[in-house]
Amino acid sequence: IWAGTDQGLARLDAATGQWTRYRHDPSNRSTLNANIVRALLVDSRKTLWIGTEKGLDRYDHSSDSFQRTALSDKPGAEIAVNSIFEDERGVLWLGTRGHGLIRFDPRTGRIARSVHDRWSRNSIGDNLVFVVQADRRGRLWIGHFGGLDVFNPSTGTFDHYVRSPDDPDALFGDRVYAVYPDRSGAVPAVA
Which of 41, 106, 120, 165 has an alpha carbon within 20 to 30 A of 5's alpha carbon? Predict the structure, then answer.
């Protein structure tokens, strides 16, 4: 069992009941990049990804250490990762605090960003992304500070759902913290 905390990452050995703690050490680049852990994902290749207040780390089981993933071309840039989702192609989608949606392909190292552009209807609705999930058609449902977006990776287009006090059929909250596919996998439940 892995647990992300505000004091680092912890692993429970279920057989012994012992916890192993992993913390950031500024003098050692093989440690977590920060102690506040916001997201965890074990991907389809059994790799553990850790989203922290300062970026994305990959756990290396063989050396019991961490490798940092650069999410920006700017040296020293800190991008808080709030959520991590893996699609059916093995691509990671990162919801960030203030940097929108990041597409990261672990096989190639390529990164692409979707950031809010107030002049474009075809941009993400807000750069503070809390959650990313997919429906069975492969569309990404993105909960953020300004509502809910649906992103179609095939076309690169966004649809937006926002609160409208005069419309009883509209989204009824401004901030979407969680989405989850319903039983059919077609439409997510939203919270």
Answer: 106
How is residue 47 written in tokens? 């790799």
Rounded distance between C-alpha atoms, residue 55 and residue 93, angstroms: 13
Distance CA 119, CA 106 (A): 32
Cα separation of the two ends of the chain: 26
Bridge partners for 102 per DSSP: 94, 113
User: Which tens digit of pLDDT belongs to each residue from 147-170?
Assistant: 889 999 889 899 887 777 777 776
Q: What is the CA radius of gyration of the chain?
A: 17
Token pair in block for residue 131: 């959650």
Within 10 Å of residue 39's Cβ, how many Cβ atoms? 20
Whole-prediction pTM: 0.90
Q: Which of 45-49's residues contact partners 24+ apart within 8 Å by CB, and which partners?
A: 45/90, 47/106, 48/2, 49/84, 49/92
